[in-house]
């Protein structure tokens, strides 16, 4: 498992949010004339916030995990300080709202009474104790200042890391070195994908006169997009298609371009020209390359394969690329592979052609088993290893049809040809596959690290739900907002709602979720919409959220919880001993707690869970299936930050 890496310790407290909190805190202190003595604190924070951003921007998450425990710890300290300041501001606002209601209730009193109420308000807000809202706010700002000072210890580290990166000839090489490259098949043998290949080859070689007329009239090139998770076999399928004899006969040439993550038309022009002419172009400016490309391809009926495309934001980049591809002979086609539907959407929209989408799923069970056997057994006849057949079949079945996962696991097991080892791997270690699993997740992590911080934190949050959970849009959006995952610097709840819904839509389009439809027929037709997360994506979410999110199902799991955990889901709590339940109250930073379905829960257990919830003062979200509304402890607990409650009783 990963440690608490920068990607969720640092970017979750991105500096715009810190600046917003600091400005808001000082506006309240100035309003109550209690900012005296904090001028230096404010100045240091303003100076250190850009430095904090520089650390967050340039340091690689895996670099934090592997090489600097001190930096990792400081980022958690910073996050703690930011959240404490956020809590203090919220408590002050609650107190102000209560005072406002009290003032409105006394509006019919005399002016003298009104002035007295106003004076009482200031006493209540500032107070005589260390726990009063304004005193706590001042204390948290000092704590935030102390945490922010720590950035000075890591600026030299950042510079060293930047120099290391700048000395690399190819900064993207580490990210793509393990990928299949080029149109030549990397696999010595491909299993399955015949139906998928037939469908796409049929579309690519379709020569209907109606389609050709549309192309001539609109100057667009039809695009087919293969969309699927990392490691699912998109590149391999595209390679199979490019080698099909029907493709070679139908097109004058097949142009293969491995698209870099930094999508740039000039670079792509150069790659396309090299693929067509088999030589490097003699010109290097954008305009010259554009004219050169038009000249080379204007009389060619080509199939352009754009492999592993990421660009789904900048329309102008796609316009620049397609500007040289719009004119030419009939019959040209583009085949695109990507992990994100949003890429396919944007490419088709810019080309102004109908979107042709081919979602690529996992291999069929028998195909995946053949792939597993091929990589697990040195001898091509696996029957020689009869003792391994049954356990191998069960392992292959659990690998969910993902070719990359299957090959990595099979290769790992081939180095340990003992039945006992395979059985142990199947029953104990499959879900926690260490070294080789990191190689599998390395592909998926590329997609995750490509997300903006807001999408990252919402994706991680979903790891607290069980696998195959059906996410309802309205419920998930409300939980994200209540848990504080959606930035509300604008202060508008409606905008937070819109932002959360947009996040969910983006995660779906980027293939981190899959949208499902269920039809109900109870005298009428209804369509129920929900989202699911692929098992591999759930594994990824669990991996990247370590230290921040957790889901436990037994006492052993509760003992492994890290003190930094913010969001927690507990399954089977009816089987927990009382001491294990009590231990949950030590996680004072918890913002979300979910108590999953319980069966035959005892009154003593229910009371202990109530006490735990009452003790967790930072809670924002509570979801439980063991309380009725009348028994929920929130009414008597001092849970000032609670924003979302969903309770039901079995």
Account of the protein in words:
- Helices cover 53% and strands 10% of the residues.
- The strands form three sheets. Strands 2-3-4-1-5 form a five-stranded parallel sheet, sandwiched between helices. It has a five-stranded parallel sheet with strand order 8-9-10-11-12. It has a two-stranded antiparallel sheet with strand order 6-7.
- β6 and β7 form a beta hairpin.
- The longest helix is centred in the N-terminal third of the chain and has 37 residues, at 69-105.
What is this structure, in a nutshell?
This is NB-ARC domain-containing protein. This protein is an alpha/beta fold.
Could you name the key traits of this structure?
Rossmann fold; alpha/beta; five-stranded parallel sheet; ADP binding; 12 strands; disordered N terminus; 53% helix; 650 residues
Order of strands in the sheet with most strands: 2-3-4-1-5
Overall 3D form: globular
Largest sheet: 5 strands, parallel
What portion of the residues fall into strands of 2 or more residues?
Answer: 5-15%
Number of helices: 29
Q: Report helical residue fraction.
A: 40-55%
Q: List the uncertain runs.
A: 1-11, 109-124, 168-178
Number of strands: 12
Rg from C-alpha positions?
29 Å
Integer average pLDDT: 79
Structural class: alpha/beta
When the domains are counted, the total is 4
- Report how far apart the termini are: 34 Å
Pfam family, one: Rx_N
Keywords: Coiled coil, Leucine-rich repeat, Nucleotide-binding, Plant defense, Repeat
GO molecular function: ADP binding
Protein name: NB-ARC domain-containing protein
């Amino acid at each position: 498992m990963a440690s608490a890496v920068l990607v969720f310790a640092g970017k979750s407290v991105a500096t715009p949010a810190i600046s917003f909190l600091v400005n808001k805190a000082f506006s309240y202190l100035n309003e109550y004339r209690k900012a005296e003595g904090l001028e230096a604190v404010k100045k240091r924070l303003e100076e250190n916030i850009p430095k904090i951003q520089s650390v967050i921007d340039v340091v690689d998450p895996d670099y934090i995990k592997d090489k600097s425990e001190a930096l990792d710890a400081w980022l958690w300290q910073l996050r703690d300080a930011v959240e404490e300041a956020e809590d203090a501001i919220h408590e002050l606002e609650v107190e102000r709202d209560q005072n406002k209601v009290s003032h409105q209730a006394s509006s019919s009193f005399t002016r003298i009474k009104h002035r007295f109420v106003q004076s009482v308000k200031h006493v209540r807000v500032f107070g005589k104790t260390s726990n009063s809202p304004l005193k706590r706010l001042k204390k948290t700002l000092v704590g935030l200042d102390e945490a922010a000072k720590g950035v000075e210890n890591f600026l030299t580290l950042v510079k060293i890391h930047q120099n290391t990166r700048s000395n690399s000839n190819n900064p993207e090489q580490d990210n793509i070195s393990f990928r299949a490259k080029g149109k030549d098949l990397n696999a010595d043998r491909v299993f399955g994908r015949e139906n998928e290949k037939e469908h796409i080859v049929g579309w690519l070689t379709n020569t209907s006169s109606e389609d050709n007329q549309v192309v001539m009239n609109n100057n667009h090139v039809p695009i087919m997009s293969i969309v699927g998770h990392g490691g699912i076999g998109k590149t391999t399928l595209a390679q199979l298609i490019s080698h099909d004899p029907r493709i070679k006969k139908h097109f004058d040439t097949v142009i293969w371009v491995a698209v870099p993550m930094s999508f740039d038309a000039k670079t792509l022009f150069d790659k396309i020209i090299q693929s067509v002419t088999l030589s490097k172009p003699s010109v290097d400016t954008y305009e010259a390359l554009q004219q050169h490309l038009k000249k080379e391809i204007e009389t060619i009926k080509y199939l352009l394969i754009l492999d592993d495309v990421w660009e789904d934001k900048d329309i102008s980049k796609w316009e620049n690329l397609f500007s040289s591809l719009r004119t030419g002979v009939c019959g040209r086609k583009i085949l695109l592979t990507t992990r994100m539907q949003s890429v396919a959407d944007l490419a088709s929209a810019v080309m102004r052609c109908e979107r042709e989408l081919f979602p690529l799923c996992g291999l069929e069970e028998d195909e995946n088993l053949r792939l597993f056997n091929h990589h697990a057994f040195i001898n091509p006849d696996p029957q020689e290893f009869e003792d391994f057949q049954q356990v191998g079949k069960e392992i292959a079945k659990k690998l969910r049809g993902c070719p990359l996962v299957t090959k990595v696991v099979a290769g790992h097991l081939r180095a340990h040809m003992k039945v006992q080892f395979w059985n142990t791997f199947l029953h104990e270690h499959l879900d926690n596959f260490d070294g080789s699993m990191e190689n599998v997740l390395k592909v998926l992590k590329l997609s995750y690290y490509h997300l903006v911080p807001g999408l990252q934190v919402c994706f991680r949050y979903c790891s607290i739900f069980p696998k195959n959970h059906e996410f309802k849009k309205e419920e998930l959006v409300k939980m994200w907002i209540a848990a504080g995952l959606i930035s509300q610097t604008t202060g508008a709840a409606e905008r937070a709602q819109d932002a959360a819904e947009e996040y969910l839509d983006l995660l779906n389009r980027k293939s981190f979720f899959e949208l499902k439809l269920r039809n109900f027929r109870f005298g009428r037709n209804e369509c129920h919409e929900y989202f699911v997360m692929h098992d591999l994506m759930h594994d990824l979410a669990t991996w990247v959220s370590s230290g921040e999110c957790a889901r436990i199902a037994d006492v052993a799991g509760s003992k492994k919880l890290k003190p930094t955990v913010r969001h927690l889901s507990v399954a089977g709590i009816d089987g927990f001993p009382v001491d294990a339940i009590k231990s949950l109250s030590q996680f004072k930073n918890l913002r979300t707690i979910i108590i999953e379905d319980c069966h035959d829960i005892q009154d003593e257990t229910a009371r202990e869970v109530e006490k735990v919830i009452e003790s967790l003062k930072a809670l924002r979200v509570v979801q439980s299936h063991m309380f009725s509304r009348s028994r929920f402890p929130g009414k008597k607990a001092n849970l000032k930050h609670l924003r979302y409650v969903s309770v039901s009783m079995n």
